[in-house]
What does this fold into?
Amino acid sequence: MTKLTPRLIPSLLLFICSALAASASDPQTADRPPDIVVILADDLGCCDMKLYDGWVPTPHLADMAARGMTFSDFHTNSSVCSPTRVAFLTGRYQQRAGIVDVIVGSREPEHGIDPAVPTLPRVFKDNGYATALFGKWHCGYQDKYNPIHHGFDEFTGFLNGATDYHRHGSWRVGLQQQDVPGYSTEIITQRSVDFLRRHQDQPFFLYVSHAAVHNPYQTAEDTPDNRTEGLNPNHLNDTNRAKYRWMLEELDRGVGKLLRTLDELKLTDNTLVFFFSDNGAVGMSPRQFRHFRGGKFSHYEGGHRVPAIALWPGRIPAGSHSDSLLVGFDLFPTLTEIAGLADACPDNLDGVSFAGHLFTEKRPPARDIFFGYEPKLGTAMRRGPWKMIVTQDNVQLYHLSKDPAETQNVAADHPDITRSMRTAIERFKADVTEGS
It folds into this structure.
């Protein structure tokens, strides 16, 4: 008989509440744990969607927010792709896995998550969930790092960081290299919808990892034989800005299709859907919509503060809002606790569960958060409203409640806070370097 440890009891309570909510709405999900869908956008910052006072309407994500919880202080663990995804999947600081920068394809053959490292999908798979990833991986280019080796039953997508939206000769279906015809966003959405239909009668963990809105900026019409000669698909200009907008709108339509499928299958009330982005924006937004300093490849807020939305009708209060400081690696303990699997998780996670915050808006405990990107950008740190960035001897301190755009370095005005946070950063760097 399983011993009811203090760690397990909250998870069981959450699971029981979830089961009761499901049984009240649909008998077919009454005897199973909650389903989990994570949707990850690529390079989508807080200044792009109208939902976040941006410039592109995303009605399906706006509807998701209206029916769930919107986060205003949610962050990724880095301001670039690979470290962010590693932290999300392992629940730990990416430095512990030795991945602090972008994995640049075949030029870095030995970089990736070691298959021996416990991952979020592995916990779900080992406890009876069907698991799948469709889209971008970017946690190891070699096949030995393929998602199939990390707890995913199914994988269709690409291993590197970016892909042509129409040419897919290097994609994988499982472990096999295979050309998957179509437009990337549509493929990822359709494979996800198909997975939901095939696994509607068993619990599932679905990771929908979009290529959009990462460059190259290509719409469904930009097929290889229908491209403007001389137009660089990676440049930030008005022509590509229009394509970028279309790409974001298409991603939003894909979210709508997933949500409608859950409705059709009568799974909505038993499914937690979480949407976020892997890092900040690249500067496609018109300047008046750039609410934060910096962007991708930056330790300023624009680099790692991202849009995030959680939906679970009947469980997460509709139209709720969170301004709590939360980070991508917190999803590992949060999602597993919600599924009643906290006791199956590793004991060394750096993330903390915010499951109670989703359902009762109880604030998570205060803590220090670090955004290391050594040696290129140094280390950043959050402590409540305080934000510090240290690069060698350059120390910057900002009070985000008073100065969210990080315009006034107040390090000299607060020597005690500066000293304390610098000490904390040095301890953090030593800790993750030791690999503990």
Notes: The first helix runs from residue 8 to 25. The chain has two domains: 8-365, 373-434.
